[in-house]
Amino acid sequence: GHPRFFNQLSTGLDIIGLAGEWLTSTANTNMFTYEIAPVFVLMEQITLRKMREIIGWSNKDGDGIFSPGGAISNMYSIMAARYKYFPEVKTKGMAAVPKLVLFTSEHSHYSIKKAGAALGFGTDNVILIKCNERGKIIPADLEAKILEAKEKGYVPLFVNATAGTTVYGAFDPIQEIADICEKYNLWLHVDAAWGGGLLMSRKHRHKLNGIERANSVTWNPHKMMGVLLQCSAILVREKGILQGCNQMCAGYLFQQDKQYDVSYDTGDKAIQCGRHVDIFKFWLMWKAK
């Protein structure tokens, strides 16, 4: 990218990442089963585990997957939250669950609203929380909006906190938001698509204090960390939710009698079947730097 390009977040070119992307293309494989991408599947598993450790989750049984971008990672988080609290939605649809509402900052990424529309909540049920002059969520307004929704007969489900907003670069107060989520038993997601890279900084990690209390986190290495597009991870603290939410038991792909541990197969955790190998360029850059 041009050295004076200051608009969108993605620019520049890392030569190690470029080599990884080129080699990935020569392999031309898919990530849905271990048998067709064994090395890449193991790389992804190890890297996702390390990312969860960096977040601060002590539970080694968390989960995650690389997705086509932060918008899809955020969508995964809402799907996981809905399945966690209302698993019947998978078979019976939204008609079988109460009127659910989602909460997010007025400065959050538009993908939260888009996910609300795509998943059947409706954009009117994505409630925007006021921010202060620095672009951070006002926790008191969040709690007030939760109580208001409950009084109207809605069921609060999910709160999105942003770690690095698109315009202000603001970091929402995760600790205070987590307190509210625990008080009302809500799923807390942290959209750290842009700011997640600061978790690896001794100097700036404090901006994400409390992220270890989240139920899920979006982290895009293709932003602050400079990995070539696309490279986005959805990380979930509880193992099994992604699989339970998305599994369709396609016997012609995910046979249970294979000659290896079928838990290495990732296809049933994803909403896709064909899934691009996004891990190799990231793995090489991490090892080299």
Automatic annotation (TrEMBL):
The gene is Gad1. Pfam families: Pyridoxal_deC. One of its GO terms (cellular component) is presynaptic active zone. Keywords: Decarboxylase, Lyase, Neurotransmitter biosynthesis, Phosphoprotein, Pyridoxal phosphate. It comes from Alca torda (Razorbill). It catalyses: L-glutamate + H(+) = 4-aminobutanoate + CO2. PANTHER family: GLUTAMATE DECARBOXYLASE 1, GLUTAMATE DECARBOXYLASE-RELATED. Coiled coil: none annotated. The keyword Amino-acid biosynthesis does not apply. One of its GO terms (biological process) is gamma-aminobutyric acid biosynthetic process. Catalyzes the synthesis of the inhibitory neurotransmitter gamma-aminobutyric acid (GABA) with pyridoxal 5'-phosphate as cofactor. Belongs to the group II decarboxylase family. This is Glutamate decarboxylase 1. It is an enzyme of class 4 (lyase). Homodimer. GO terms for molecular function: glutamate decarboxylase activity; pyridoxal phosphate binding. Its cofactor is pyridoxal 5'-phosphate. Its EC number is 4.1.1.15.
